[in-house]
Amino acid sequence: MISYIGSFIILIALLNASLLVLSKPILSKITSDYDSLILSTSKLQFPLVLIAFICLIVAFVNDDFSLKYISSNSNSALPFFYKISATWAGHEGSMLLWCLILSFWTFMASMYSKSLDTQFRLKFLSIMGFLNLGFLLFLVFTSNPFEKNISIPIDGKDLNPLLQDFGLIIHPPMLYMGYVGLSVVFSFAVTCLLQHDFKKEWAKWIRPWALMSWSFLTLGIALGSWWAYYELGWGGWWFWDPVENASFMPWLITTALIHSLITCEQKSMFKNWTILLSIMAFSLSLLGTFLVRSGILISVHSFANDPARGAFILLFLTIVVGGSLLIYFKNSPKIKDNISFDFFSRESFFLINNILLVTATFTILLGTMYPLLLDLLGLEKISVGVPYYNAVFLPIMTPLALLAGYIPILFLSKRKDKKYMLNHLLASLLVVIFLSLLSIAFFDNFNLNVLLGVFIFIWISFNIIYDLINRYYLSKRKNIFFTNIGMTLAHLGLAVFILGATIVENNKVEKEIVVKIGETIEIKNYAFKFNSISEYDGPNYLGVKAKFLVYENNNLITELYPEKRIYASNNNMPMTEAGIDPGLSRDLYITLGSLINDDVWSVRIYHKPFIRLIWLGALMMVFGGVLSVLSKRKSKPVALSG
Amino acid sequence: MKKRTLRIYYVAFILISLSIIFFLFIKTFNENLLFYRSPSQITAGEFPKDYIFRVGGVVLDGTLIKSKTSTNVKFSITDYEKTIGISYNGILPDLFREGQGVVIRGKLGTDGIFYAEEVLAKHDETYMPPEVLDSLKMKEKTIEDTTKSMNIY
Fold first, then answer.
1. What is the ipTM of this complex?
2. N or C end of chain B: smaller count of CB under 10 Å?
3. Sign of CA dihedral A33, A38, A39, A40
4. Averaged pLDDT score across all residues of chain A
């Protein structure tokens, strides 16, 4: 019953979205008040899709196996919370989540766009409506979560055990909030093109949206990385998997975008470039969806290979990307850009920042798409390995990171003369080099890469904190100080991330060995004693749990329980659960391999120094981004009318 | 005049660094491509010698030999035409089973055995790596049988 309501509501939402798309001449014949019709339909979309989404959740909780989607992604023995999260664990449900979030952003855009010029606002919301319509059509015709089974199975096939996890409950919604948030930025950019203008005030209006999307993307990617780390049992945090790349590319472009928007807002520069970045950012998130959903890429994210889905998304991608680029090439010459600037200005460094980020994106795009292209052409089957990304990506990112620590010095130069700036640069370089060299004493395994990582960390944090203090004393209005805290925190996050990533990748210890019960393995100053192993029954699986006693300098500090699980409801799929002792300065990580004989097991034991800094850094970026949005200069309300 | 000179330097700087980057980039890209080969191609000698590459196939029933004292394993993979022996020292992925499609990265030894650095069997029990599926495409029926035998678990 509830599923019929869901299906019905989806159809109404579809109609509602098509109202948004219909242009003024057509709608004016039906209603005299075109403007308020658009405004109310754009708001109505969200509650409609939300009801449909709740219907699906209720159907999951009630084990309604008459629905195909539920019978293939849930099971009556599945724990309650996983029944709810299973709603978006498969393809159809995650597309419904996508539509829900898209309608949410449309709602927000409709609510908070009062300050925009009416014509602009209506066009902008219509474009959002078009995107809503496209995805709802996709949902209804190729991936309907409310599709019925021909015969109702007694029980469901169960959820993939890898996805029965807390990380999965929050990873997709956060990532989608980011992906789909870019649709606001995209629609806005296209509207600017249609209006042949991109005003300073408009740049100011759109930047918080770009920042919010960026923060969500960061959080989503970080959660995915954290999940992969503890759930896949390999102890890695980034694999350069095509699916990861698909989420990382929009992130890089959005990072470029939030920087170029500052220049747009303050100096009326890089307008066309910023519009192009906005289009690229959303196009890449669509491309990501296409790659993941079409079944071209196989990974934990792709659920079924249905050519119709791939074809639909490809068509939609062509319309959206092709259409917006056509408008771009036709209309962008009409938008006047102010392009004269000094080499030693903030603008030119933002330009370098943008060039580096876009270059990095294209190297990843090439590594992701080139093998697919060769394969589609039937030429050769290749894959691009991790060494490629490390060799190409890191040299591009290093100057970017150095730049992030240099920009604050540049701020000073605006107020003081160049000589002062140079002196300051030399002074801070000396301090940073001294501190970096000092840090050598704290590492037992020190190499040049670590030195570089530590240097970048200190370089960014030193300069950015110095800048913050400096601003505080220089600024007359103290609220300016607060608007910069977000920026400071985000850049500090970058520094922390770089520190963690460099140290863990250079100094980690990984052992794959055979251990007998009672034996002890030593890594650094830790000793791991394989104490015992026992079987137990989980809610929907059979488990084998090992007990390891962990000693640090001969003192017992903790016990770790790595597990093997067999999910009977899921074709006896085996799963590895890692035993992890987290800590800011190191993680201890154990996974069980397989039974070698009697009481001998193969195990992986890892020592991961400072790996938590990776996610801590990402979290700092997220909070930094959100703070920047919240502390938007409220002191100076600007009339944004066209 | 001065502004113009500056601009020329600026453009030159960008162009030079771009070409250096591009050159290094193409070089690294070429050095890091991993080719994929099927057992038949390897037997016919069609593989990049002395390079790391990937091979894929179905793990042949009854060929998996595990050491009783270490993480060494030996098994054979097949594309139902030719078979090739694999030697691996490490922990196999959870979904590694006889009858399962796998992709292996490593080097071919002079003894004709493929020494694996990494064994991949993906996250889904009915999953057949696309490369493996492609090299099996000639024999639709065998694929059907394999898929069936995989579903029995």
1. 0.77
2. N
3. positive
4. 87
